[in-house]
Amino acid sequence: MNKTVPLFIAAALATSAFADDDKQEMKHNGDGQMNHAHGAKHDHGANHEHESHEHHAMAHDHGDMAMIAATITHTNEISAALANGGAPVVVDVLGVVCDFCATAMNKVFSKRDEVAAIYVDLDKKTLNLVINDGSDLSDKQIEKLAKQAGYRIAAIRRDNEAMGG
Amino acid sequence: MINTILRIALVSMSLIACATAVARPVSYAGGWTLIETSNRASSAGLLHYTMNYNLSVGARYEWQRGSDTRVTAIQPTFLAKRWFGRDYQANLYFSGGIGTAERKIGGIESSETVKFVGVMADWETRSLFVSYEGRRMNLGQLGNQTMQAARLGWAPYEGDTGALHTWLMLEVDHRKHMDERTSVTPLLRFFKGPALLEVGYNLSDPSPLFNFTYRF
What we know:
Radius of gyration of chain A: 18 Å
Distance between the termini of chain A: 64 Å
Oligomer: heterodimer
Structural class of chain B: mainly beta
Order of helices and strands of chain B: HEEEEEEEEEEEE
Strand order of the largest sheet of chain A: 5-6-4-7
Number of strands of chain B: 12
Distance between the termini of chain B: 27 Å
Largest sheet of chain A: 4 strands, antiparallel
CATH class of one domain in chain A: Alpha Beta
């Protein structure tokens, strides 16, 4: 038997997939809220008041590097789904660098009945969803689906925040 | 019998798709990927199914042209770690395989158990790419093979989702079992939706490189 085979198995077992990068970890607390540190930092611009602003089910740690929270990207499919009463969701996704990433998320999320429209924006590094009127896709479900696609999410914005309102 | 069916299926797909690539050997959970590679040493096809975000299992057929050796194997690939950043992604994969290797020696067909292990690592942004791949293959009485390859890539523009993405790449490979041990291959990578195509030409060991990957 090749001596390298047991080495491979040992290496594979010893290394944990998706080992957490502390700086980008998203954690759930008891009530389903998510906290994330450093992975996505938000810019507190002119139309964004820190004390009064309410991130949807999330508490953010504000670091040095600022990032403007992206709003939903309008495609024909997204606009049509919004016009039909769908709810907008914008998800900041880490590691989205190519079309394979977009394909993976398209395949995984489009299987869900709750999803009326989907678009992965490589420029903004966002997953844009419109949830069917009357349906719901929780933050935890979105995080789980992103993980199935091979990615990690940094922030989720819904409704007015997703629309930039 | 199973080997024959597997071989026919993979060769057929190879002919349809023309060639292979080494991009993302683990896909999304429930996804299938066809990967074909054709370089100075061999032509190979790998059809894999991603069972979980960190594990794919596939069937591999490889024809090593120099020695006319045919390898048929089952290949699991394990995503050991993925580093995420807002503008980058990096991956570390381990793969292995076990199967059969066949070669005619003195007019007599010889068959051996083949085992191999490999490691792949890459780091990429939307405009820069670096990767390393190494593989050690034991073909029993037919010998051992070790290969390593490293790549640098640059995208002259950042394509939108679904648009054509183009990369300029340079690959350096080292194969101990070949006469020309080290070689250099400039290549072009084209990426669109679920399909990836690479076309290059080996300058040191004159031969074409033609890789193709499709996810479905």
